[in-house]
Amino acid sequence: MKIFVIGAGQVGATVVQALHSEHDLTVFDLDGERLAALSQRYDVSTVEGNGASRRVLAQAGIKGADLLIACTSRDESNIVAAMISKACSPRTTTVVRTTNPEYLEVWREGQLDVDFIVSSEVETAYAISRTIGVPAARQTDVFAEGQVQMVEFDVTAKADPSILGASLRDARIPPDSRIAAIIRGDGVVIPRGDEEIRQGDRIVVIGSPQAAQAWGELIAPGTGTVRDVVVFGAGRAGIAVARLLIEQGIGVRLIEASRDRARYVASELPAARVYHATGFDPDFLERERIADAEVAIFAMRDDMKNHFAAVLAKVHGARFTVAIVHDAPSQEVFEHAGIDVTVNPRQITAEEIVRFAHDPRTQQVVMLEGDRFEVLDITTRRDSEYVGLTFKEMPIRGALIGALVRDGQAVFPRGDDVLRPGDRAIIFTESRRVAEVEKAL
Amino acid sequence: MSRREAFLAVDVVGALHIVGTLIAYLSLATLVPAGVALGYGESVWPFLAAGGIAGGTGAGVALATRGDYRLNVREGFLVVSLTWLVAAALGALPYILSGDPQLDRPIDAYFEGMSGFSTTGGSIVVNVEDLPRSLLIWRQFSQWLGGIGIIVLALAVLPRLRVGGRQLLEHEMPGPEIETLSTRIRDTARRVWILYIALTIVLFGIFIALWATGVDEKMTPFHAAAHAFTTIPTAGFSTKGNSFEAFAPTTQWVAILFMVLGGINFALMYRTIVRRQPRAALRDQELRLYLALLVLGSVVVVTEIWTEDVLSGWHAVRAGVFTAVSTMTTSGFSVEDYNAWPALALMTIIGLMFVGGSAGSTTGSVKVVRHLLLGKVLRREIDQTLHPEVVLPVRLNRTVVEERTLRAVSSFILLYIGIFVLGAAALAIDAARTGLELSPFDAVSVSASMLSNVGPALGIGGPLGSFEPFSDFSTILMTGLMWLGRLEVIPIVVLLSRHYWRS
């Protein structure tokens, strides 16, 4: 596919990284140095210029492009670029990144002539809400309108002894779920029945939402369900998360350091309890029993502030901490400090964008461990070599089908089940095998 | 010109110009009782003379102060305060000129005039039914004019006040914030007045129908018009010595309904009736609390008089509900002399005097919305003592209320209570000085009743009594309380501040 990527910032770079090997990419940016850095690492062509200019797009050959991804940090530039592209070349699919949820709303109501809009804030909020659903999980994702969940766990000494050291065939694994992969050190095991889970493993489970909850109880007993969440920082991301959680019936407390902002949020979100305070005051944390919350989310703009506040909250007894991380290197620091989950808005946005570049049969893509692994949602072709085989018979080539969606209903396949054409398969695979898997199905 | 402006920060001349203009137009109102006098063969000239004097003076002042004027927030306070003082004088003129022995003393006549325009309804007249009919109609008509506001009327009718009209309206319309029905303040004023007139006509029609069908033979067209003029503005003057007690029970229930209507925010009523948006009314927090308080007040009063065997059955229900509604909406009509009621019922009545109706209605007193907001502020204060950092915006009908408004509400209530206490103390001391029989309880009730524009109080100023026995000093004091109450205290108190007059 011929793809135009407008903007070579963090999101643009992540998109390029994920797509460069299979697609023909042209990257636009005003900053020549960024482009030079990208073209040194990847085989892409670059255009130094304004991607929201009709002349620049026309010269680069917008009529031949299949997909235009506008992912600069400026919402309006992205929208203008997409609209110009629509006018010059109606066949080009347009994907726009926005940081303002209002544009998302306008688009949903059909008032923006753009094919897809991806909002960093909203996607981040979804990502965080997914982790909170299973407090013990490192990462959670939903497929098939929430019928299938993919959950990633770290197996620690706290885990229920019944699943440690026993072969998967014998271990009492929650029904309607499958272990898609065991990540052990640098290697990955696509498990067979004789494999066992060890302490220190990182496992990827695909199953029903109930099974995901049951897994959470197995991996970290006593984590239960969530009623009280504290969000530090009421920026756009913080508000988006708070709003989403409130919609799910979860009680939200918001902590915001700016008085005006705190007032604004308090008037915008009547259901949330808003405090005008920094997250750095131990007295405040004690007085308001912040540690009583099941989850603390750190959504301030500054990674270092998030880091400090998260560690402080941990010291005061916070049980489960989720941090929004803006710079890739921070992620390691956070993990080292014992923050339970980190969410990188740019990576999440890139993931959302990348799924439009995949085969149109592919409905959803989730990246794990940076971009080492992906979980795909693919509709099986009639002539696929796997159609008609039972799951027992399927050869394992670095990929595993965790669940099927058949006639809109989720099916968690057993060994005797047969793959039928038209089934939507939720597949775990290594990123480098994505094209192979798509071809095979 | 320039010297004056350097000395005073207020454009007094400009304010006088507007007051003069307003009074000149308002003096035309005397034509109504003049017409009645003609019809009944009574003396026309007190009204024509009053109209001539007021109109001439007003026009003279307006002419003398002609020129460029500015009308800002500051001038607004002065215009509103002066207009109501002068309007009361216009109200008093026909009483003085008529030479009626019950009202010919200027201080008494001025009290009656203020009680009229401020829609209080407390009277200095001992035997109302002895007054000529034209004078009675003037009393009633002055309450109708004062009900929704002289300046609202002027804005609706006169083209010249457009500039700065919003500020004037804000000082005159009851409540912490005005609710507009249109982008132009003039249209809002017009719509409110049309609704006001329509309600008055409907009530007049119902009264006439009751008379014509024989349900209430005493509600003749004269009394029907007189009471239609004073029920919607929740005013309280009656052409009968014993107020609504003179009329049939059905009439009394109709009066209850229209007093309740008069206590509803006119902007909200306009939306509900004219624009057919009943949902806005159902969701309105102030309206809901207003109705709830009316029901609660009625139930308490009825229970108190019934259990003490003062009255029983439907009579107790009617008397209790009427008294509670009349007091809370600051109307001041009566169907029973409640002076004989148990102390608990009397305390409830005094309490209801402090409630009032909705903002933007014709009622006096504190108004339900201020109680509602104060309650919310107090609840927030309690929460914030436990959680100092928590940010809690106060909401009214889902909209966040500005902190400034909340502060204004709290200071209003403090000022209101302060003035009420001072008024009660001054009345009690003056009564002791002149040997007037006024218990402290009565003094409290008179101060509350005057300040809240209710009208009747307890003791000698009760429903069947009169304020005639009070000394001249007390009469002036009560007149001042009515004035303060009608303009909701602040515009007048502002004038006492030095910062108001100097830049």
Explain what you see.
The complex is a heterodimer of chains A (441) and B (503). With 441 residues, chain A is an alpha/beta fold. Chain A has four domains: 2-114, 3-Layer(aba) Sandwich (Rossmann fold); 129-219, Regulator of K+ conductance, C-terminal domain (Alpha-Beta Plaits); 225-347, 3-Layer(aba) Sandwich (Rossmann fold); 352-440, Alpha-Beta Plaits, CATH 3.30.70.1450. Helix content of chain A is 33%, strand content 26%. In chain A, helix 1 (10-19) links the parallel strand 1 and strand 2 (24-29). Chain B is mostly helical and 503 residues long. Chain B has a domain at 375-501. Chain B is globular, with a radius of gyration of 22 Å. The mean pLDDT of chain B is 90. The chains are: A alpha/beta (441), B mainly alpha (503). Chains A and B meet through helix 9 and strand 14 of A and strand 1 of B. Strand 14 of chain A pairs antiparallel with strand 1 (390-391) of chain B.
How would you characterize the largest beta sheet of chain B? 2 strands, antiparallel
The end-to-end distance of chain B, rounded to whole angstroms, is 16 Å
Helix count of chain A?
A: 14
Strand order of the largest sheet of chain B: 2-3
CATH fold assignment of the largest domain in chain A: Rossmann fold
Instruction: Compute the number of helices of chain B.
Output: 23
**Percentage beta strand of chain A:** 25-35%
Indicate the radius of gyration of chain A in whole angstroms: 22 Å
Mean pLDDT across the residues of chain B is 90
Quaternary state of the chains: heterodimer
Round the mean pLDDT of chain A to the nearest integer and report it.
84
Query: What is the second-level CATH architecture of the largest domain in chain A?
Result: 3-Layer(aba) Sandwich
Q: For the terminal residues of chain A, how far apart are their CA atoms?
A: 19 Å
Question: Order of strands across the widest beta sheet of chain A?
Answer: 3-2-1-4-5-6
Number of strands of chain B: 3
**Helix-strand makeup class of chain B:** mainly alpha
Structural class of chain A: alpha/beta
What amount of the residues of chain B lies in strands? under 5%
Rg value of chain B: 22 Å
